[in-house]
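Hi everyone,

Forwarding the result from last night's run.
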Amino acid sequence: MNQAALQATASLRSDLAQIARWIAPNTRVLDLGCGDGTLLHWLSTHQSCQALGVEIADENVLACVQRGVAVIQANIDRGLAMFGRGRFDVVVLSQALQATQETERVLREIGEIGRECIVSIPNFGHWSHVTSLLGGHMPVNKRLPYAWYNTPNFHFATARDFEELLGQLGFAILDRAYLDDDQKIGFLPNLRSTLAVYRFRKK
């Protein structure tokens, strides 16, 4: 990534900025649960990537179209058979995996359709969440703003949980980054990071 593109990542959400730094120019990228298309628009503009998004929410699909981002409206829990094996260089899920019902199947499928995968997840092991649980309550904060009874998230995991799952599914972790807002975390990441970002592929 050239210096101008690197500086431009400052406009992105912290996990999206990390993801963008890992994606080379002219890469074929599929972003599952792409939201309003912010990452894909950035990759198309700054890295000349061939970008495609998949999104279920009507308002986000409209936002993608308005940005000029190619998008398919679909539910990733219903399968990714529309995409051929190895069709994409990189498949991205940014803070979307915890909202899937069949998480293991989704991970296996993205490992088939992408040469590499990049996933970011909220780290449920952060000390503030542990403190909430010790106080008898599920955590509610700016990163997890929903109450237990109306959250769209089905699965919560710690960074360590997710790493163990990747190993069980036969993935090799190529790189990882632990974040707390815009800061990278090195020491005690499972307790101190609010987000974890992983780059991995099938062994």
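The helical segments are 3-8, 14-22, 38-47, 58-67, 103-113, 127-134, 159-168, 189-192.

Cheers,
N.
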